[in-house]
Design goal:
This protein has a domain of 122 residues: NADH Oxidase, CATH 3.40.109.10. By secondary structure, it is α+β, with helices and mostly antiparallel strands. The protein is globular. The chain has a four-stranded antiparallel β-sheet. It starts with a helix and ends in a 21-residue tail after the last strand. Helix 2 runs antiparallel to helix 4. It contains six helices and four strands.
Amino acid sequence: MNDIIRAMEERRSIRKFKADMPKKEDIEQIIEAGLYAANGQAKQAAIIVAVTNKEIRDRLSEDNLRVVGKEPVSDPFYGAPVILIALADKSCTTSVYDASLVMGNMMLAAHSLGLGSIWIHRAKEEFETDEWKKFLKDLGAEGDYEGVGHCAVGYIDGEIPAPQKRKEGRVFWAE
């Protein structure tokens, strides 16, 4: 089996991370993999916001919990020190799909580098708020963006979960 398919089969969502910050070179490689995701009409309309600042990361965590109506008592990012946010340019008809592929590439890249990752939702709701729209603008991200997902990344604290059995009846051949 080739390495890419093996990574696809072995990657798991991680729900416990060490606080240690991954090497910047590894984070950059993960981002680069995201930027190489397939995209509609070669528009490359998805953007990535890399959050390694703990204060900003913790604000995101608190806001993420508020979206689901919970008080900030636990961390929806499971302690991951890096949050890579994929956002979609609303003017592009394929942008949500494109940003979803960015997320997939980043999670596979993290796995290939010995890091764990998990896709956390609610970026859409967060980036509809004035606070996070201003945050994007302050970073220089001009335009109208929809949050698609948070790719929480870090060193795995514990064992990699065992794979779930694949559901039967999900492939239909038209030969």
